[in-house]
C-alpha cells in the first residue's frame, strides 16, 4: 500500500510539474477592430504569432469604436487595462502616457526603427519618449465617389477639387433627384471629420497644427483661434451642406457603416471618409466602380487640396502588463507585429497603407490603394487629425459632439467656435 501511495504521489507531482512547465504566459490585447476586415486581419496575426510560440499566448478582445473609448478610459482610471491596447496616436495616446498609464518602450522601438517609415514618429512620441508602434497609415481627408453615377450624369470628378465645384456637383445630383452625400453622424466622429478637414483647408499647416497643440504646449503662438472667422467658417461650410439638403436622410441616426453602405451600393454618389474605406470596398463591394480623390480646397483659403490629414493607431504596452509581469512577452508580440509577415497580413486584408519599410511590391494591393498612394506622392504637406493634436477634453465635446449640435440646430457655427475656444483657455489655465 505504501509503495502504491508513493507511485500515486509521484504521478501527481509529475503531472503538476509537467503542467507548470507547459504553462504559457498569457498576454491580453484589446483593440477597436470589431468590424471586418480589421477583425479577421488582427485575429490572423494573433493566431500566427501564437502558433510560433511555445511560451506565450496572446488573447485578443475586439470592441466597437465608440464603446472602446469608454472601456479604455474606465480601465486606465480605475481598473486594469489589457497588457497591450490599440490607441489612436497623438493626443489620445498622450493622455495615457501623461498619467504613467503606458510603458516607456523607447529602447525597444529604437531597436526596430529601421522597419518604421520616417514621418510617423509624432503619433507614438510623447515628451521625447516612445510609447508604441504604428498599426497602419491612414489618410483622412478623402472623397469617395461612384464612377458609374458620375458618368451617367456626365460629370467629371475633377470638378470637385474646389469647394464651390464640390457643392456644384452635389447640386446637380440633387436637381436630378438623387441626394448626393452619404452621411451618418450618430457616433459624432464623421461630423468631426468634416470640420477637421475644412479647418485644414481654412488654415495654413502651421496654424492648423498649433491651434490643436496649444492644449499640450501653451507657449505656442497661434495665428488663429477657434472662434476667429477662419475657424468658424469651417463650421459654416459644414452646416451649408445640411442646409442645402445634400446629406442623406439618416444624417443624424445612421452610423459610419450604414452611411458608407449607401455609397458602396450605389444609393448615393459621394462619401467623405478616410483611406480605411478601401478595405470596406475590397470586403463588401469589390466590383463596385468607385473612385477616390483628395478633399477639396476652399477658394481663398491657404490650405491646398494636396495638404493631407493622416493618422495611425498605435499598439502600446500598458501598466497592466507591469502588474501582470508580461512586459517582455508583450514586446515579443510587438516585434512580430512589425515584421514583414504580419504587416503584409494587415495591409492586404484591410487594404491600408503600411507605415513600415518592408518591400510591398509583391503584396496584394487593390488598385484603389495605388490611387491613394498617388495622392500621397503628390501631397504638399501632412499633418495629424486635430484629435491627435488636441487634448480630448476639448476636442471631443467641441468637435465630435458639436458636429451633432450643428446638425440639430442646438449650436450655431459661432457658438461652436466660442465654446471650443473657451474650453481651450480654461484647460490651459487648469493644466499649466
Protein described:
The model is unreliable at 15-21 (pLDDT under 50). Helix 18 packs antiparallel against helix 19 (413-431). Strand 1, helix 2 and strand 2 form a beta-alpha-beta unit. This protein has 432 residues and is of the alpha/beta class. Helix content is 50%, strand content 14%. It has helices at 2-22, 38-51, 65-77, 91-98, 106-111, 147-153, 163-175, 189-202, 205-213, 229-243, 256-264, 277-284, 319-324, 327-337, 340-350, 367-377, 386-389, 392-408, 413-431; strands spanning 25-31, 56-62, 84-88, 125-126, 129-130, 133-139, 142-146, 181-182, 270-272, 290-294, 307-317, 381-384. The longest helix has 21 residues, at 2-22. The strands form 3 sheets. Strands 1, 2, 3, 6, 11 and 12 form a 6-stranded mixed beta sheet that branches. The chain has a 4-stranded mixed beta sheet with strand order 8-9-7-10.
Amino acid at each position: 500500500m505504501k509503495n502504491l501511495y508513493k507511485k500515486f504521489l509521484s504521478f501527481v507531482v509529475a503531472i503538476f510539474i509537467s503542467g507548470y512547465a507547459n504553462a504559457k504566459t498569457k498576454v491580453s490585447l484589446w483593440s477597436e477592430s470589431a468590424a471586418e476586415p480589421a477583425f479577421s486581419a488582427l485575429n490572423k496575426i494573433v493566431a500566427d504569432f501564437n502558433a510560433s510560440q511555445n511560451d506565450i499566448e496572446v488573447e485578443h478582445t475586439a470592441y466597437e469604436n465608440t464603446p472602446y473609448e469608454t472601456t479604455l478610459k474606465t480601465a486606465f482610471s480605475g481598473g486594469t487595462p489589457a497588457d497591450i491596447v490599440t490607441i489612436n496616436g497623438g493626443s489620445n495616446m498622450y493622455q495615457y502616457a501623461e498619467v504613467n498609464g503606458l510603458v516607456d518602450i523607447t529602447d525597444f522601438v529604437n531597436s526596430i526603427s529601421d522597419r518604421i517609415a520616417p514621418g510617423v514618429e509624432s503619433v507614438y512620441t510623447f515628451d521625447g519618449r516612445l510609447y508604441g508602434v504604428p498599426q497602419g497609415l491612414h489618410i483622412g481627408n478623402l472623397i469617395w465617389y461612384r464612377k458609374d453615377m458620375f458618368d451617367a450624369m456626365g460629370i467629371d470628378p475633377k470638378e470637385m477639387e474646389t469647394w464651390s465645384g464640390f457643392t456644384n456637383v452635389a447640386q446637380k445630383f440633387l436637381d436630378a433627384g438623387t441626394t448626393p452625400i452619404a452621411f451618418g453622424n450618430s457616433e459624432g466622429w464623421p461630423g468631426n471629420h468634416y470640420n477637421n478637414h475644412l479647418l485644414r483647408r481654412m488654415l495654413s499647416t502651421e496654424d492648423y497644427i498649433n491651434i490643436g497643440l496649444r492644449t499640450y504646449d501653451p507657449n505656442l503662438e497661434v495665428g488663429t483661434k477657434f472662434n476667429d472667422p477662419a475657424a468658424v467658417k469651417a463650421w459654416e461650410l459644414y452646416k451649408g451642406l445640411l442646409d442645402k439638403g445634400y446629406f442623406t436622410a439618416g444624417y443624424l441616426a445612421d452610423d459610419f457603416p450604414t452611411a458608407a453602405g449607401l455609397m458602396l451600393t450605389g444609393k448615393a454618389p459621394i462619401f467623405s471618409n478616410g483611406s480605411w474605406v478601401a478595405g470596406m470596398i475590397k470586403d463588401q463591394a469589390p466590383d463596385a466602380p468607385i473612385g477616390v480623390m483628395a478633399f477639396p480646397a476652399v477658394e481663398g483659403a491657404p490650405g491646398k487640396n494636396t495638404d493631407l490629414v493622416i493618422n495611425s493607431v498605435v499598439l502600446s504596452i500598458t501598466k497592466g502588463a507591469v502588474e501582470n509581469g508580461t512586459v517582455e512577452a508583450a514586446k515579443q508580440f510587438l516585434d512580430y507585429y512589425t515584421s514583414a509577415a504580419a504587416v503584409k497580413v494587415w495591409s492586404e486584408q484591410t487594404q491600408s497603407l503600411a507605415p513600415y519599410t518592408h518591400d510591398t511590391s509583391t503584396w496584394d494591393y487593390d488598385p484603389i490603394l495605388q490611387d491613394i498612394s498617388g495622392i500621397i506622392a503628390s501631397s504638399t504637406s501632412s499633418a495629424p487629425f486635430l484629435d491627435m493634436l488636441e487634448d480630448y477634453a476639448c476636442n471631443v465635446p467641441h468637435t465630435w459632439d458639436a458636429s451633432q449640435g450643428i446638425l440639430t440646430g442646438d449650436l450655431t457655427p459661432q457658438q461652436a467656435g466660442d465654446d471650443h475656444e473657451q474650453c481651450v483657455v480654461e484647460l490651459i489655465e487648469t493644466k499649466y
